[in-house]
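ok so for the tutorial part 2 we go from a plain amino acid sequence to predicted C-alpha cells. step 1 is just haveing the sequence, like this:
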Amino acid sequence: MSPETLDPDPRSDGAALELLVHGVGGATPQKVLDDPRTVRITGDETAAVYRRADDVDAEAHPERYQGRPVPEAYCWSNLTSGNGSRALWLLLLPFMVVNLAHWMRPATKGLGRSQRLYGVLVRLVALTLTVLLTAAACEVALDLTAWQCAGSARCVADRSWLGFLSPERHGWWSQPGRRLALAAVVPTALVVLLWYLSNRTWSAYEAQRPPTDEPPAGTSHAGKPEATHEAPGTEGAADEGRAASDDPVTVRPALGRPGFWYGRRLVARLRAAHTAAGFLTIAAALTAAATDHDRSTDGGPLGLLGLLLQATLAGCAAVVLWVVCSRGRSERKRDGSLDQLLISALPATALGALAVAVVYAAWSRPGWVSTGGLPGNLSFLVLALAQIALIVVLVVTAHVLHRRAPHPRIAMRGLGGPAVAMLACALGGVMTGGVAQRVADWLDGDATPGAGEGAIVGPPVLLSWQASVIPVLLVLLLIPVAVLGFRTLRAARRLAPLVEREYGKETPDPLRTRQVAGARARAALTDYAPRLVGVVSGASLLLGAGAVAGSWLSGQVPGVAAEGTDSFVESVADTAQSIGSWLVGLGFLLFVTWGRRAYRDASARRTIGILWDVGTFWPRAAHPFAPPCYAERAVPDLTWRIVSWTGRTGGRLVLSGHSQGSVLAAAAVWQLRTATRHRVALLTYGSPLERLYGRWFPAYFGAEQLGQLSKEVHCWRNLWRSTDPIGGPVRVPEDGDRPEVDRGPLKDPLAYSRTVLHPLPEPILGHSDYQADPVFAEERAALLDRLPPAAVPAQRTEKEAQGQRAQGSSGRSSA
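step 2 — the prediction. this is what the C-alpha cells look like for a chain of 815 residues:
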C-alpha cells in the first residue's frame, strides 16, 4: 500500500521518514517503493538507499508531506544473491552451518569459563572441517589418482592423460613420490582459493566501520558519557577473559556493542590458522607416505629428514591450535588492530613446510612402488574421532550453560548449537565422501570401488562405512516426517470450525475453509523444526560413531566385512553400501549441478541467496572460509543512514522491516545512541525475531533482549499472521505505559468469500504483502503519532537541495 493512502494527521507535524528494509530473496527498489521511477540516494550497486523520483528533494519541501512519511528503501539483496560467482558459496555450506553453531550458545548468567569453552569447541569443530575438505582433495588427487590409478597399468591404459605418470614408461614422473608431489598442486590450489575468497570478502564486508566513532562511542546527545558496558559473562567479555564493570549502569546487549559488527581481527587470525592447517594437511600426507617407505628400507639421511619434517609439522600444528583456541571475539570496542606478524608468518611458514615436503617426497627412490592405499592415510579416521569427541563435550557444555538460565522457548533446551555443529560435520562428510566415491567409481570403471578382487581404485574404508549409514538415516528420518504429516492433517481438521467462526459464515465453503485451515496448519510446522533437527543430528552422531567403530574393527568395507555372516545381514550390508555410495555421489552431483545452474540462472541464484540471507546474517566467528556476513555491511549502512538523517533534519523516523529485514532493523536500532533511538519507531511484520532467532540464538535475541529492545526504542509494533510460516509474535508483553508490541494474528485472507469490496477471491498471503492489509497503514500512522515532533526544522539551502538532486540523478532507474 502506498504511503499516500494515509490521511493527514495534524498531530504528526514535522519531517518524517519511513525507511523500508526488505526481506529474504531480494527485492527491487521499484517493487519496494511501488513506483517504476526510483533514484539512488546513497550507496553503490551492492547495497543502496533509494527514493521515488518525486521524493528526491522531500526535505526541501516539507509542506508536501504533512501527516505522511517520505518512503525510502534500503535494498541489500546483492550482498547475498548478486553475480554468478556467488553460486560457488554453495560448496561452503558446511562452513556456514558450523559458524551458526557458534551463535547458538545458550543464554546464561555467569559461567564465563564455560562460555569460553563453548566458543573454543565450536572453533575446533570448524577447524576439523577445513582439514576434512583438504584431506578429501588429497584423497582424490594424491591417493586415488596419483598413487592408486597412476600406479596401475590397467587403470592408466584407459586414461591416456595419466600415461606420463605410469611406471611402465620409466619416466622421471614414474616414481610414486614425484607423482604425489605433482598431484599436491590440486589441494594446494584449493587452499589458496579458499584463502583468496576469504581475504577478498574480508576486505569488502568486515571492513565496514560502524558509526560508533562519529561522534565518539559512548557520547550521548548532550555530550555526556554514555555507559556501554558489556553484560557479565557474554561472549565478547568471556573470550577475552575480562570481567564486566560493577558500575550500576545500563548494560548494553550483545548486538549493541561497538565492535559486534566489526570482526576484522578475529577473521584475519582464523583465516591465517585455517590456511596454515590446509597446507600442513597436504604436507603431512606427502611426508607420511615418504617416511613410511624410508622406514621400511632404512632410508638413512632421508629417514632422519622425514622425522625432522614430521616434528616441524607437529610444531606448526600446535601453533595453529593455539591461535584457534587462544582468542575469541572482542566486542566491547571497535578493534581496528591486526596481528600482522601472525597473519603473514603463519601461512607463509606452513607453505614453506609444504615446499620442503614436496622436495622430500620427490627425492629419487628407485625401488619405491605404489600398491594398495596411500600409506599413513588415517586422516579421515582421526578427524571423525575428533569430531565425535568435540560434539560430545559441546553437548555437555551447552547443557551446563542452559541449566543456569532455562527458558521454555529455547530450541532443544539449549542443545541447538551442538546439534547444528553435528549437522555441519555430517554435511562435510557427505560432500567429501561423495567426491571420493564418485572419483573412485569413475577411475575404477565397472568395478565397485574398494570391494572385490576386480577393484583397482578404492577410497578409505571409513568413507564406505559412512556412506552405508546414509540409507539407515533416511529410513529413520521417515518416521518423524510421517508423524508431522499426520499432525498437520489433524490440525487442519481441528482448525476448520475455528476459521468458519472467525469469518462468521453461516453457510461456509468447505473448499475455502480447507485452504485457510491447511495454510495455518502448514505454517505451524516451523515450530516443530527443533525436534526434526534433534532427530537428524542425534541419529547422525550415533550412526557416525557406529561407522567409525565398524571401519576400525573390520578394516574392510561393509559388504566385505559381512561376508560369512547370516545371509540377511550380508544382503543388508551389500544393499546399504551400494545405495549409500550412490546417494553420496548423487548428493555431490546435486551440489555441483545446483551451483552450475545458479551461475547461469538469476532465478536459481536468488533461491540460493535466500539460504545465505538466513545463514550468513552472523559474523564469521568460527570459520573464516564461510560465506561472508552481509550484516557487517548492512547494519552499518542502516545505522549510518538513521544517524545522518535524524541528525541533519531532527525528524521522526519509522524503521520498517519485513522478514529478515526486521532482524537487520533490530540490529541497527541496538547500534544507535540513546538520543537517536528515542527518535525512531520500529515497525516489523512477518518477523522471525522470536520464532527463529529468539529460539535458536537465545543469547542475542532471547526474551530478555527483545524486552530490552522494546524499552530502548521509542515505540515498536509487530504484525503477524497465523498463515505465515516464518514470521510470528515477538512475545513482548505490555509494560506500564508501553502497549503490547504484537498485533495479530491479522486476518488472512482479508475476505472469506466474494464481497462488494472484494469481488474476486482474496489470496492467502502468508509471509508476503503485509502492506496490503489496512492494519499496516493504521499502525504506521499510530507510530508516527507517538514519536516526538521534529527537534530541528527540516530546512535546507537551495544549494544543498541541488546537490541532493544531482546525486540522485546519477542513480536514476529506467525501470
